[in-house]
Description:
Layout: H1 5-19, H2 24-31, H3 35-43, H4 50-60
Helix pairs in contact: 1-3, 2-3, 2-4
Amino acid sequence: MKETIQQKVGKRILEIRTEKNISQRELALKCSFEKSNMSRLEKGNSNATLSTLEKVCDALQVDYIELFKF
């Protein structure tokens, strides 16, 4: 089955978060999300809004384009 864009973006968030040695809980706190919401986002089970992706990028200190490099 073909990977959805939500799954691809979620994987990128996970990759970047791991590279920066940030826990899922820590990233969720920085974004003012519940950890369960961050988990759903990383698994691609959530269709994130642009404002959600903006919060994630700000918390990870990356440019938006980084989430779409797959």
